[in-house]
Amino acid sequence: MTTTAIAPTNIAIVKYWGKNPAFENLLLPTKSSLSFTVKDLYTKTTVTAKKGSGQIDFTLNKKKILQSMKEYEYVEEFLRKVSQFFPFILKYDYKIISENNFPTAAGFASSASGFAALIKALAGELKEFENLRSDDRQLSALARLGSGSATRSIPSKGGFVIWHRGLDYTEKVKISQIDAHNCSYAETLFEPSHWPELVIIYAKVGKEEKKIKSRAGMRTSIDTNPLYGGWVKYEEEEMNNQVIEAMKAKNFPKLAELIMKASNNLHQICLGTYPPIIYLTQKSMEIIDAISELNKNGIKAAYTFDAGPNPVIFCIAKNKDEVMSSLTKIMGSENLVVTSMGPGARYESKNLG
């Protein structure tokens, strides 16, 4: 049998940056995060499994991935982590074909959609996973073992998603690995139909791979930035609730303000890390200035940056043309992708390969 799944990328507006040191192997986050599931940017993955011993034949973006390559190691490690809870997964050999329709590793959360699509396809392909195929809670927890942000790409309803951290990383608790694993998952809070007027614009300012990978940067921030704990506490206890309330009320000015503050907060944490981590470029700063200028007489747009130079811009449909005009002057229309909230991970009948 062969199974194909599509999983969207997602853009966090309250960020994930750091793993709980006591459960780093499970990628439990230090704080909860909030995100939009993106309609038109996705990974498509086809998996064919047969009885074997965990051998992997992997093709990514039409390129054969050799055993010595880091992408192969990531998938191999992911299967090993899943096997902690489902040992049968290593009793198969896999042919995996995966394609992204956006630049890999340049701030476009490729690992999120990639691991979400992979676990969704595996769940559809292996008969032992039959009871999990439509279980967003369990699948999102499993996707987390590959990439933390993949957790948020799973919920099938998509839209506005929360990834629950599960445990307070500052508290020492006695808990089993399986219970710790199960307590951190994602769910949809508002479906795309809640706010169809919300526009999401991806701006590509650079395609090069980032110098400092997120995995390494997160750990360094926890270890060296004395403000890290206060940031986690503030966003977990205050900001998340404010963002959810603004989203519920469809209060764009308030939501936009919070989105920009959350983005700024992340990059302040990165800058306060030692050595400092700098993802934003001069072009990134030009975008920030342009959005600030647009908002002088009332908030019309918001920016956010993940761990990379590429901004994602939010606005309401009625202001889209004005926002696009401002962005086009800086980067050209060919570097802008207009989309919206969309559905989450799902199965697809047309296979790759």
Describe it.
The protein is α+β, with helices and mostly antiparallel strands. The protein folds into two domains: 2-192, 2-Layer Sandwich (Ribosomal Protein S5, domain 2), CATH 3.30.230.10; 198-339, Alpha-Beta Plaits (2-Layer Sandwich). Helices cover 35% and strands 23% of the residues. It has nine helices and twelve strands. The strands form two sheets. Strands 1, 2, 3, 4, 5, 6, 7 and 12 form an eight-stranded mixed β-sheet that branches. Strands 9-10-8-11 form a four-stranded antiparallel β-sheet. Strand 3 and strand 4 (63-65) form a beta hairpin. The two termini are 14 Å apart. The mean pLDDT is 95.
Largest sheet: 8 strands, mixed
CATH class of the largest domain: Alpha Beta
- CATH third-tier fold name of the largest domain: Ribosomal Protein S5, domain 2
Radius of gyration: 20 Å
Distance from N terminus to C terminus (CA atoms, Å) equals: 14 Å
Mean pLDDT: 95
Shape, per Cα inertia axes: globular
- Structural class per helix/strand content? alpha+beta
Low-confidence stretches: none
Number of strands: 12
Strand content: 15-25%
Overall structural domain count:
2
Q: What's the CATH architecture of the largest domain?
A: 2-Layer Sandwich
Helix content: 25-40%
The ordered H/E elements are EEEEHEHHEHEEHHHHEEHEE
How many alpha or pi helices? Answer: 9
In short:
This protein has helices spanning 70-83, 110-125, 136-144, 177-182, 214-224, 228-249, 252-271, 282-294, 320-331; strands at 2-14, 33-51, 56-60, 63-65, 92-100, 160-163, 186-190, 198-203, 301-305, 311-316, 336-339, 346-348.
